[in-house]
Each structure stands twice: as structure tokens, then as C-alpha cells.
Amino acid sequence: MPSVIQQIGIPAMLSGMDLIAQAQSGTGKTGTFCVGTLNNVDVLLNECQVLVLAPTRELAEQIYDVMIAFSVHIRGIKVHVCLGGNSFERDVTTLQNGVHIVVGTPGRVNHMIRKGFLSLRQLRTFVLDEADEMLSRGFTEQIFETFQSIGQKVQVCLFSATLDVPTINMSQKFLNDPVRIILKKAEVTLEGISQFYVELKRRSWKFDTLCDLYETLTINQSIIYCNKKSTVEHLTGLLRGADHVVSATHGEMRPETRKAVMAEFRKGESRVLVTTDLMGRGIDVQGVSLVVNYDLPYEKEKYIHRIGRSGRFGKKGVAINFVVTDDDYHRGDAEKLREIEEYYSTEIKEMPGNVVDYM
Ligand SMILES: Nc1ncnc2c1ncn2[C@@H]1O[C@H](COP(=O)(O)OP(=O)(O)OP(=O)(O)O)[C@@H](O)[C@H]1O
Description:
single chain; binds adenosine-5'-triphosphate; Helicase_C-like; hydrolase activity; RNA helicase; Rossmann fold; alpha/beta; seven-stranded parallel sheet; 18% strand; 359 residues
């Protein structure tokens, strides 16, 4: 059965109107914009008609896979994934032969537009997934550059589980009288995800606590989030040194390594993934029922995206937050957690002994 965002979002997209759509993590936004765009493609016109941008290679690849799955019965449709790190020449050749849909990351796609290899003159719909991330920090310039290349009449659709007021306000610059699907803050967290904290007196206790949790971690698939790449590497080394089997990925790894790690995690060959916020958004691995915030994230939005890697599409999930109470570096963890609770009107309880029962 279609989810709420699909029931409302698909007809909105098919109407041709611009759209700004917020829906909780794991509720099927990808399906919404895949169905919403595929229906508008004319396969007899050998030009790019749909452009979907996402912030990471992994997410763009995942969207591409969903787009392929949905379009399998549309004869002659050509979908291309355009990513930094992939072969430039192959991108050029594929684009020059003509494609109907391009899914990609902003840098490579912009490059292709600027060099004239990707023409957007027949573009009908432009989708920005994780729109708040795409319109903030490092991406803004590239996204605005892409906007310069598209016509006035192109339908623009923004999606995210988190949309703050500045993003909504900023989107007015390029949305034309959009359909709005916006959640209240208290609706953003998913009821199916049980949230807990573990209080630790010292930062140095984190590793032992994680080892104690390890039996739980390996029951299902889990993701452990660290704030820094160096922590990912350090922790991975410690875990492997203690004979635990873990995968690890972060933004400074080579694209091929990142791809291989994601593939083994998706297939369930590895049950524990240690990572940064690189994998915080959008990644959909059905087996994940536990998220551990080894470090609490700096931003409230990141918290929601991280914990939303579990509890996909109505499944149960558990989030465990490490809160250091007596350490200069981490002073403020408890306060940060209270702020998150308050902001999203949610409850984060002390971890019970039977945490496995919540998964
Ligand atoms: N109508 C449906 N019925 C059953 N499963 C669905 C349906 N729609 C989507 N799903 C599944 O739900 C999962 C989550 O979907 P998706 O990744 O699109 O969520 P999302 O809203 O984009 O989440 P996020 O905010 O984390 O990016 C996927 O595994 C998808 O296959």
C-alpha cells in the first residue's frame, strides 16, 4: 500500500506543480519521486527530461537502483547515474548518446552541464533529494548553478525528512507556488524507533561499553556513527583488534572502497558498519535495526537522519546514544540530548537491560 507521502506526493508531482515535501525517514520518498517523474517521461524524445540530485554517491546510486526497478517495464527508457569518482569518459559517451533520466551528485552533474555534455533544454522535472542538505553548506553554489541552466517552466520538487524554516524560506527563490507537505517538529521522529541513552563517566569508557553491546549489535545489522573520520578509523582498528568483524566507511576513502563496503553491508555479509554522517542520510538497508551514536551529532537534523537508518517503512528500530558526563571534551552531551528531546518532543530513556526486545 502506498504510504501517506506517496498518496499525496505522487498526484502532486503528476499535476506538474512544484513541490516541497517533508516526510519521516524511511516512509518512501524515493518511490514518490521515481513514480512521480517516470510518468512524465516521453521515451521517444531522446533528451534528459528528469534530473535528480542527491548529496552522496551512495545515495545517488541507491536512487538510481530504485529508478531502474520502477522503470523496468518502460520500453526504451534510459536512466544514467552521474557520479564523481566514476569514469568521466563513460559519462560523456552515455550522455552524448542521449538519456531520459539523470540521477547524480551535484559536482559531476554540474561539470557535465558546464562542458555541454548534458543538455537540460528538454528538462521537465528537477528533484532535489535531501533538499535541506543540498541547499546548505558546500552544495549551495553548485545547486544554484544548476538552477541557472534550467528553464522557468521546469517543475522543481524538494524532498527531505528535515526541513527547517530557513530552507523553506530560501526555497521560495526557485519554487513557483508549490504544493507544500510540511511536518510539525513533533511528527518528525518515528514512533517505531525506540531511543535510549547510556551514561558514561569518561570518554574512554565508550569502547568497552560498545564491546559489551556487541552481542546485541550482531543480532541484526547495525550502524555506529562517529563524528570524525579519525574516530571511525581508530574505533574500527580497536574493534578489529578485539576480533570483532566490522565494516567501515567515510568520505576520505577511495570511491571503489566505499562502493565495495556498501555492497557487502547491503548484502548482509557484514553486520556492523562504522561510519560518519556521510552515511547519515537516505541510506536504506532493510536489515538495520540498531543505530549507535558513539558520538552525539553536532546538529539536531543529523540525529534524526542517523536514527532513521533503522525502523525503515514501519519496521521497529533502536537508537542508542552514548552520553559522556564528566569529560572536558564532551561536556554538554547530556544537554545536547535534552535539546534533541525537546526540539522533537520525543523521549530518550536510559537503556534497559532487555534492549534486544525493542528491535
Ligand atoms: N509503498 C510501499 N510499500 C512497501 N515498502 C515500501 C513502499 N514504499 C517504499 N517502501 C520501502 O521503504 C523503504 C524506505 O523507503 P525510502 O528509502 O524511499 O525512504 P525515504 O522516505 O526516502 O527515507 P529517508 O528520509 O531515510 O531518505 C525502502 O526499502 C522501500 O523499498
